[in-house]
Design a protein that fits this description.
Layout: E1 8-12, H1 17-28, E2 32-37, H2 40-49, E3 56-60, H3 66-79, E4 83-88, H4 103-131, E5 134-139, H5 143-146, H6 152-172, E6 177-184, H7 190-193, H8 197-205, H9 215-226, E7 237-240
Parallel strand pairs: 1-2, 1-4, 2-3, 4-5, 5-6, 6-7
Length: about 250
């Protein structure tokens, strides 16, 4: 028996990186998962890797579009049954200093991260309230705690996710729906490994544990928040940073 046996989950932004590891972990622990993303080729590959349509299904979903998010939940429930877990992980970066950042770069990052998380939280909570149970996990970032140079858009969005998490948790706790957040630090993904070496080394110097995290280490914390081991936790923000920015 896995920790998520027979539970139904939706994970956004799950065709690669942290999101894919979350989906892998959920399937390994007995869940059936809808992978919601906008990369059809990678989505088909992720679906196949995770065991095919009996265990995991890819659905195209732009999280900025509330109707698309609702449709992803519909797909999950039609394919697998009642929604139990929703993970808002979809994200993007458009880094630049304020002087060089365009309004479009700001708007796009806010829309994908913050509006996307709001759309997902609202859609999931709407179903879970009726069921009297459920777990929503929002992926924030250490950038939302401390603010990082060249990331006014990303830091604002990730800080907003913390506020969203706490406010939503207060709204739905009486229905036994839990809303929590995770703040990863430097995690080894295709996105972070593409950064210049000098930036990578600067970040590494701030980590007491002396190494970057792995996506599976974030996924393990998300699993904890998704399963019954965290049944008396809501509105919590858990840092997965190797001690960075303590």
């Amino acid at each position: 028996m896995g920790l998520l046996n027979d539970r139904v989950a939706v994970v956004t932004g799950a065709v690669q990186g942290i999101g894919l590891d979350i989906a892998r972990t959920f399937v390994r622990e007995g869940a059936r998962v809808v992978i919601a993303d906008v990369n059809d080729i990678a989505g088909a590959q992720a679906e196949a890797e995770l065991g095919g349509p009996g265990l995991a299904r890819y659905v195209r979903c732009d999280v900025r579009d509330s109707a698309a998010v609702e449709a992803a939940v519909d797909t999950a429930e039609q394919a697998f049954g009642r929604l139990a877990i929703f993970v808002n992980n979809a994200g993007m970066t458009r880094d630049a200093t304020m002087r060089k950042m365009s309004e479009q770069d700001f708007d796009d990052v806010i829309a994908v991260h913050l509006k996307g998380a709001w759309n997902g939280t609202r859609a999931a909570a709407g179903r879970m309230r009726d069921y009297g149970a459920g777990s929503i996990v929002n992926i924030s970032s250490i950038s939302g705690k401390v603010g990082l140079l060249g990331q006014t858009n990303y830091s604002a969005a990730k800080a907003g996710i913390v506020g969203l998490t706490k406010a939503a948790a207060k709204e739905v706790a009486f229905k036994n729906v839990r809303v929590n957040a995770v703040q990863p630090g430097l995690v080894r993904t295709p996105m972070t490994e593409a950064m210049p070496e000098r930036i990578w080394e600067q970040k590494m110097a701030d980590i007491p544990m002396g190494r970057a995290g792995e996506p599976s280490e974030v996924a393990s914390v998300v699993l904890f928040l998704a399963c019954d081991m965290s049944s008396y936790m809501t509105g919590a923000v858990l840092e997965v940073t190797g001690g960075r920015q303590m």
